[in-house]
Structures are given as structure tokens and as C-alpha cells.
Amino acid sequence: MKKTIWVVFGLLVFVLACGPKQKKTELIKAGDITDEERMEWWEDARFGMFIHWGIYTVPAGFYKGEAQTNSAEWIMNKGKIPIEEYEKYAAEFNPTKFNAKEFVALAKRAGMKYMVITAKHHDGFSMFHSKATEYNIVDATPFKRDVLKELAKECQEQGLKFGFYYSQAQDWHHPGGMGNNWDKNMERVSSDEYVYEKALPEVKQLLTEYGPIAIFWWDTPRKMTKSVVDSLYNITTALQPRIITNDRLGDDYPGDHKTFERNGPRYQPESKYWELCQPVSGSWGYRSDDDNFKSISTLIRNLIDQSSKGGNYLLNVSPTHEGTLRHEAVERMRAIGDWMDKNSEAIYGTQASPTSEEPDWGRITMKTIDNKGLLYLHVYDWEDGVSIPIRLNNNVEACYLLTDKNRNFRTEVLEEGIQVKLTGDAPDNVATVIVLKLKEMPNALPVKPLGQDEAGVVTLPAFRAQYENLQGPGALYNDHLDCIGSWDSETAKVYWSFQIDKPDKFNVIANYSGNKDTELEIVFNGITKIIKLPVTGDNPKRFKNIDLIDFTIEKSGKYEFSLMPVAEKWNAINLKEIKFQPITNN
């Protein structure tokens, strides 16, 4: 068997070495392409379409009459469906209503600049005419068409960048793929054999027979041998030197951009390039019972929100087994497109907001033109006669409505920043964009100190925490989960400084997740208290609140609140925030 593996690998190397001269020339020039050159179009695009599609749309979330948990594409796993039984869905998969031209046109209509589709998900079914397995859309279904080839062609003709999602480690159909622990009839082989027999040949085929591929989107890295992960990485960059990859190939392969799933970062990540992928409804793949579609305003504001933090938005849609989208998804794509028709200047090619704090009234995106700041104020909460603050110490050259340059707004430069006075009605009830032209580059005012809001509440967020890791690294901010994580050291102190202007009695609440019971020492205003935190569950993303302690603060002033693990009783937690909630006496 080892001999077979090396023969397959040797053949792949031979094919690469003997490929067309054009590929060889491109390979030589690959080292001359900088990260900035490769990422330029992607950073300008800001908005793309994700497509999850496969034979799991036949059961559409139900197995033996019962709804299965999780997204539709996980039904084989959640239902523990044997391979032989699951394969039968392929014979029922016949999406005759699929039209690649209309699909790409809808993405373009929405303002999307690129498209990524699942070439193979965890169930192991290939949505293209794979040469490595007959378990594919052409050979195993009555449809007999390669939808990926059709979409690749249409994207080229309509001017969208095109890319593939590929599950490189999990494959519940191949005996060497990871993830299938329920089918006892499977005769197991090594993960390496799976990669060399199926994954690597399929990746090579996708990168050589489908035209220019802009993105390769890996998913769910597992403990694979370094040699096979190296092979996947090397073949990808060799065949398509300008390709962009995400951060899910393996632990030692950060890729070109960071990936956030379902929920975007609350604050601007440290990563230069990042992307939020999110389904338009509840499930990634089509479920017949999924009516949990996000509202039009939520989707548009999600796009704005990611752009305001310097990131991209990859919005997922779910074709049915017939090859069409539900009307709710189509309606939302068109509505986003209507907004983009008027406001895309404030999205494409923009940079993150120059202010570190998110304004209460909306979001800010920015461009730099002639060494001057050009700000786009996306106003969500519009009220005639109200002035909105922008925490910049700058002079203003002009301020006007993006959709009507003749509609100007009065500005005032104060010590606390620029004030823009809203007048009249909002032209858009989702987000009205005002252009604020500065006379120089933005000069952000210092971040406001932590303190009480109008209700007297003090929120101490993870991203504003300070650390004393007494014995090296021991607690870090996790921008993916927006929490304090990697809290492995018992000597890692976490603390915040904040201002109290309205003394009161406060209930202190922690929002955290942890898979084991643990103990923390709280120090505040001369009081030390040991607190026990119970387990919240195995999912680190499911944060829960717990009342820690009550404190009475009698004087206004600056305070410090600190947390320290209790030695020998500490198990790491993820901490999202601490909140001081005033206790009101009725």
C-alpha cells in the first residue's frame, strides 16, 4: 500500500514538472508576487458569495422522518447514516432548474465581487466531475453536469473572481478520511492514503481544469501528517501562484487571511486580512425547515460592520435539490444590491475606521485620497436636528450626502471631536451614508476611559483588559471569540482600570465559558474574595453569565478590578466581559 501511495505522489510530481510551459513560467514568477499584490483585489472587493451545496439537500435536514441537529450538510454525521444508505441520495439528486448564468448574475446584482462554492464537503461527495472517485455529481447522479465548471465559466464571463471550498481532512465516505466513527462496515486505511488517493488529485484537478482560481478555502483542519499537509499547500501555490487561502489548512499554515464564522469580531482584529463567513439563514446547506432568514437591514449592516473593521463579508446561500434558491434568499440579495447601487463607494476599496471606538449611531469606513482622509459615515439612527460625534481632531473640508452632493451638513470641531448635525429625513432607513472630507489625514482622539454608561453600568470588555503574566505568556485576547483566552498560567493576572462617577451598590457579573470547574481570586477596592466558577459545557463559544459578588462603591474616582487564578484549583476559561450592574432599591 505504501508503494501505491508513493507511485501516486510520484505521478503528481511528474505531471507538475511536465505541465504546460505557461504554468512553468507562472511558477517561476510566483516568488515575485508580494502578499500585497495578491491580496489587493480581495481587500478592495469586501463582499463575496459563499455557496454550500450537495446531495444533503435531498434529505434537507430530516432522516427517517426526524429533524437532525446542526446545519443540513452535517446530516450524515448527526444521523449516523451508513455510507451505503447515504450514497442513495446521489441517485435522487437532479437539480434540473440550476442555471449558472442566473446564479452568478444574482451575486453580481447583490454587489458581490467573488464566489466560493463547496467542491467537496465532509460527506465526501464531489460536486464536480472528479477523476479520483466516481462518487461525484456527473457519474453518480442523474443530473450528469459539472456545476463547478459551469459556474467557473460564468464567473469569468461576468467578471467575478471564483474559488473553491474543500474539506481536506474530513471525508465520511473514504475509509481514510477523518470524522466517520459510526459506520462499522468501513475498512479503514491511513489518512495519508486518503490524501494521496483522493484529496491531492482532486485539488490538482480543481486548480488545472477550471481556469483561474482566485481562492482556495480549506476547512476543519485535523491532525494530519506534516508531509500530506505540505503536499496540499505546495500544490496549491505552485499551480495557482496568485491564489488566496484561508487559515484552516493546518496549525502551521496561517494562510493569507483569518476566518471568522457566523459572528464577526466585536472590535477590529489585529490581523491585516480577515473575513466573516455567515449564512443568510440558520443553516449553511439547504434545510426544508430553515426559515431563520436574517433581515435585510441586518445583512446590509453586517456588510458595513465588517468593512468598518477592515474585513470582508462572505455571505452564504443554500441551493435546494432542484438547483434554485428560496425566494427569501433571492429577495435579500436583490435588496442588498439596491443599497449597493447607491452606496458601494462606501464599501469597495475602503479601510477600517480611523477611530478605535464604534459610534453608537452607526459605523465609519474610510479611504485615503491625496494624503487626506475621506470618511463615510454610515448612519443607522438618524434623527433630525441631532449632532453625531466623530472622535477625530481634524479640520473639515466638506460634508455632504453620498447620494446627493448638493445636500450639505453643518460640522463643528470641538475638543471632544467633530460634530456633524443631521438635518431633514434619512434617505435610507437602513443606513444613510454621509461623506466627510478632511483637510488632512485622520487624527483620532484618545480612547475614552472605561466607565459608566447612562444607566450607571460599567462594562469591562475582554479587548480592553490588561495583563500581568508573571511567568511568561499565560492569558491573551482571542479576537476570534472576542474573549480572554489561552489563560493557562496560574500566575496570569487580568485587570481593568475604570472610572466611577455615580457611586452605588453593584452586582458584578462575569460572562465566560469553561469545560471544568475552576476558582478565581477577585481583588477590588481593598477586598479579596475567592470565587468558584462552575463548568458551562464543552462548547467554548457558549458563554454564560454568573453573579460573582456585590460591591458597594461610596466615592467617585478611578478603580481597578483584577482576577487571578487560584493555584492548583485553576482550569482555563474564556472570559468575554465583566459587568458592574447597579442594584436599584425600589
Description:
- By secondary structure, the protein is an alpha+beta fold.
- An eight-stranded parallel beta sheet has the order 7-6-5-4-1-10-9-8. A five-stranded antiparallel beta sheet has the order 11-12-18-14-15.
- Strand 14 and strand 15 (404-408) form a beta hairpin.
- The longest helix has 18 residues, at 191-208.
- The chain is globular.
- The chain starts with a helix and ends with a strand.
- The model is unreliable at 1-28 (pLDDT under 50).
Low-confidence stretches: 1-28
> Radius of gyration, Cα only, in angstroms?
27 Å
Largest sheet: 8 strands, parallel
Shape: globular
Strand pairing plus helix content: what structural class?
A: alpha+beta
Give the tags:
single chain; 586 residues; alpha+beta; eight-stranded parallel beta sheet; five-stranded antiparallel beta sheet; 12 helices; 23% helix; globular
